[in-house]
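Follow-up to my post from last week.
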Amino acid sequence: QQPVQSPQAVILREGEDAVINCSSSKALYSVHWYRQKHGEAPVFLMILLKGGEQKGHEKISASFNEKKQQSSLYLTASQLSYSGTYFCGTGDYSSASKIIFGSGTRLSIRP
Amino acid sequence: DAGVTQSPTHLIKTRGQQVTLRCSPKSGHDTVSWYQQALGQGPQFIFQYYEEEERQRGNFPDRFSGHQFPNYSSELNVNALLLGDSALYLCASSGGLNGHNEQFFGPGTRLTVL
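User reply:
Got it. Predicted complex:
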């Protein structure tokens, strides 16, 4: 079942912070975060596994609340390069390698 | 390291035709997943191949089929094309089936069905 992302879109000024949420109706084994710029392939940001989290980038971090079946991506002091669409992908216990993606959060950064 | 490569880049077909898309995984990766991405949507999981067998499948009809070769490269075949099959088709590779590892995506093949 597809995870639900919120908000669908957000507009920030450079230097502002943002939080993107991802929730699932199923118990999650993993959460994967990707960023996709227009006309390009999704780029891996980080993966979070049950019982821990991994940071892929300095000002971009994420948390995984396994009880609530939710994950949040935090972008601090946003830069123009952060613009794009962010997708969370989830794997469950019955099919850990089958990653199902949400519909995305479009992030626009203004100078 | 060339990363994940896909061919062709763009393709135009007419309804009813058949198409084959190709993917070469990142060096060292043995698992290939295929996704369909419609405009403004997230990637939708089609299927996944490991050790030349289909291991996982999403909610796609049998018109969508695939293959993995001994060198881990993969093909996606779509028969009896419909207008709704127009999309960006992404291939992603990873190491193994444990779900711990990141997937690397290729640049995609843009399929247009007229």
